[in-house]
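Incident log, entry 3
Record: Glutaredoxin (86 residues)
Problem: checksum mismatch between cached and fresh output.
Input:
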Amino acid sequence: MPKIEIFTQPGCPYCHRAVALLQAKGVPFTEINAPHGTAEREEAIKRSGGQRTVPQIFVDGVSLGGCDDLMKLDQTGKLDPLLGKK
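Fresh output:
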């Protein structure tokens, strides 16, 4: 099973939407609270190649991008293989 991490911020509707999709997929993931100005947010920015928005989603250390990117992967059938689902 791949390691899935999602950096989020409280009150962010895009974060809630991305988390809801991952929950619906039934995959284990780690949600990391990363409000603006925190070390966690800086880590997400660094790991994503400079993306400053949340959520930032990583699978096995590779950035998938944000909520819209996650939704597009799902709509095109490319997300399940990345999440280790058949």
